[in-house]
Write a structure and sequence with these properties.
- With 228 residues, this protein is an alpha/beta fold.
- 26% of the residues lie in helices and 31% in strands.
- The protein has helices spanning 14-23, 67-78, 104-114, 131-151, 213-218, and strands at residues 2-6, 28-34, 53-57, 60-63, 85-92, 119-125, 158-164, 170-173, 179-181, 185-189, 195-199, 203-206, 221-227.
- Strands 3-4-2-1-5-6-7-13-8 form a nine-stranded mixed sheet, sandwiched between helices. Strands 9-12 form a two-stranded antiparallel ribbon.
- Strand 1 (2-6), helix 1 (14-23) and strand 2 form a beta-alpha-beta unit.
- The longest helix has 21 residues, at 131-151.
- The chain is globular, with a radius of gyration of 17 Å.
Amino acid sequence: MLILVTNDDGVYSPGLRALADAMATIGDAVIVAPDRNRSAVGHSLTLEHPLRAQEIEPGIFAVDGTPTDCVNLGIHGLMMQRPDLVVSGINSGSNMGDDITYSGTVSAALEASLMGIPAIAVSLDARTFSESDLLVTTRFIVSLARLVIKKGLPTDTFLNVNVPSGGCHGVEITRQGKRRYGQAVIVNEDPRGRKYYWIGGSSVGFEDIPGTDCCAVARGNISVTPLY
């Protein structure tokens, strides 16, 4: 069993290493991940300059590209054979509702799915990783990965998993929810009086739609959302 592990937080993220260690309990895990944080790059490919990959440790490759680049390069250039599963994460912060359109974590799993490889994206609803949160997340993903390997997934379908922090009560199969965002662009001035702009307003909540990922995590449940 060969498993490709990637993310968008970068190759040195503790969430990535915890995920790879967990996947190594069920197969051979190879990490191909961005050499730095590439959050919110969506499903972008690098087309205007060549990519470079450095094997920083045996079976761990740092790529100067996006998560989608990493999946492409891992499958077609770095791995000796086609992986049986691609797992992306563990992302710092949830990827629910409208967030999935921006997420590099989710897009890496999407890219694998487009290539016909079963894939799982996994995110933790916290900005810092606690040992207990990582333990809950990795235990669940190992169980889910075993099930996906055994049963497979429908064509062009992958799974987006979001785990609440501080423990969980159960698991829900959900659909994509709807986020609400605050001010999207912040305008300020640098010390020389020139304006600069910071894109990315804070989330101010979500629409209370039963059966969605946002509601499940808010209730303290792990959300598993099939995406097509």
